[in-house]
Design a protein that fits this description.
single chain, alpha/beta, seven-stranded antiparallel sheet, five-stranded mixed sheet, 20 strands, about 40% helix
């Protein structure tokens, strides 16, 4: 029978159903309820464990419920349009999972973990089929990164970044879609490792941070000749721009001489001076406009960052002209005094005790110069923060695919945060950021009890 809820709080019979009709109705009801339960579990599970066995089984099941994908469709040009539809439908899934070698990086409570046996068994045939479909000599391909994006009801999308070692070094980017157990190659793209990168860094009177930044850049300057650093230097209204630019260039030369004995890489630094109070958005807009770079990758960066050559290659591969932009999720270092972890030799152990993924920030980004030119420029706020969120939304609205991946090769190096000079509009946000960058709850709790014991001991004396 079909039932309805009566005003007396009891069920009442509306239409009697008997025999075969009743059985068919019961089966449909059970299937509908099961589908609803599985769909809810899928949403919860994909968010926390996007590459687990259960997530994989449920996605394969729901692919037939939401979007039937037939064998003839797998090689169709419409597949890319279907992926666009999936990306639009699930734009709330703000991050992807990165797999480097045998380590998985995800923006979750555990910053890094080992690749499990199921994931390893899943990736091997995926990589094999994707590489065979690319018509390249797969013996010459060395896989470096696998980026995983779940689209519930549609399937799984993988971005594979590899080195192609036949001839001059090139980067290979494969996009592979797996709507069921079969892999379909969406796109194969060879990217020159000589693609020029313009690193743009807004700067305002932070000599110690600049010295540290150059120190971390030095290994990259020696091994990668295809990037340049533009430093946008904010100066007082009364200062002379050329004089201040020359002064900062001399300071950079002194740093290079002190740490390497040579300033041969000074020509890779371009100093621009701009009058007025510090505005990160204004500095990035000015640096991009003055770079005179029509066919390069722009990397918007801060002076308190540490980066690796591997990260720059991902920047080249994921910021694809007319196609995609890269907004890496930065790993933010805790206070070394509490965590006992320090950045050494451009490396930091990624763990929940050394820092956290700054999933709320969009400040570091890579985008092709031609794509940036057709977008709205970054808002030039004088207050702290906000321009990165606005720029991220602008890129999303432009139709570019946004890659949002935990990036172990991009670390925010800890430094004390001074919120005393912040405007009242952003001082609360500043203090919240200051609190979470000091340490995790275990470290802060331990520090509290240590200080409490010290105060008690001092009072006894």
């Amino acid at each position: 029978m079909i039932c309805d809820w009566s005003s007396r709080g009891r069920y009442r019979r509306l239409i009697p159903m008997k025999g075969r009709a009743r059985r068919v109705y019961d089966v449909i009801s059970v299937v509908a309820i099961l589908h609803l339960v599985i769909h809810i579990l899928l949403r919860i599970h994909v968010w926390f464990h996007p590459l687990s066995r259960y997530s994989w089984v449920v996605n394969v099941f729901t692919a037939s419920c939401y979007l039937p994908v037939y064998e003839s469709d797998l090689q169709s040009p419409e597949l890319a349009e279907r992926l666009k539809s999936a990306q639009a439908l699930f734009e709330h899934i703000d991050h992807q999972t990165l797999i480097e070698g045998s380590t998985v990086y995800a923006s979750e409570q555990s910053p890094s973990r080992a690749l499990n046996s199921f994931e390893s068994g899943l990736l091997q045939p995926l990589l094999r089929e994707a590489l065979q479909s690319s018509d390249l000599d797969h013996d010459q391909v060395s896989v470096r990164d696998v980026i995983y994006q779940p689209y519930p009801g549609f399937g799984q999308l993988f971005y594979i970044i590899a080195e192609y070692n036949q001839g001059p070094k090139q980067l290979l980017k494969l996009s592979a879609f797996m709507p069921s157990s079969k892999v379909s190659l969406v796109q194969s793209q060879l990217i020159s490792s000589s693609q020029q990168i313009e690193i743009i860094v807004p700067y305002s009177d932070s000599p110690k941070k600049l010295e540290q930044f150059i120190k971390f850049l030095l290994p990259l300057l020696r091994t990668d000749s295809n990037f340049r650093v533009t430093i946008v230097n904010f100066i007082a209204q009364s200062s002379h721009a050329d004089t201040e630019s020359n002064r900062l260039s001399i300071f950079i030369s002194e740093i290079l001489l002190a740490i390497s004995g040579s300033d041969e890489h000074l020509k890779r630094f371009h100093v621009l001076s701009i009058r007025g109070g510090f505005s990160r958005g204004r500095g990035l807009n000015y640096g991009a406009a003055e770079s005179k770079c029509s066919d390069c990758t722009l990397f918007f960066c801060d002076v308190d960052m540490m980066l690796t050559s591997h990260m720059l290659d991902k920047c080249r591969a994921l910021a694809s002209k007319g196609s995609s932009a890269y907004f890496p999720i930065v790993f933010s270092q805790f206070n070394p005094a509490l965590s006992s972890y320090h950045v050494h030799n451009s490396n930091l152990h990624i763990s929940q005790d050394s820092g956290f993924w700054r999933s709320f920030g969009y400040g570091m980004s890579c985008i092709h110069s031609s794509d940036f030119q057709r977008l709205e420029k970054l808002p030039e706020y004088s207050a702290w923060g906000g321009e990165d969120d606005a720029f991220h939304k602008s890129v999303q609205k432009s139709g570019l695919t946004v890659h949002r991946v935990p990036e172990p090769g991009l670390v925010h190096v800890y430094h004390p945060k001074d919120c005393s000079r912040r405007a009242t509009t952003d001082i609360n946000a500043c203090y919240r950021t200051k609190a979470i960058t000091e340490g995790n709850s275990k470290q802060l709790g331990s520090q509290y009890f240590t200080l409490q014991a010290q105060v008690a001991a001092a009072n006894q004396h």
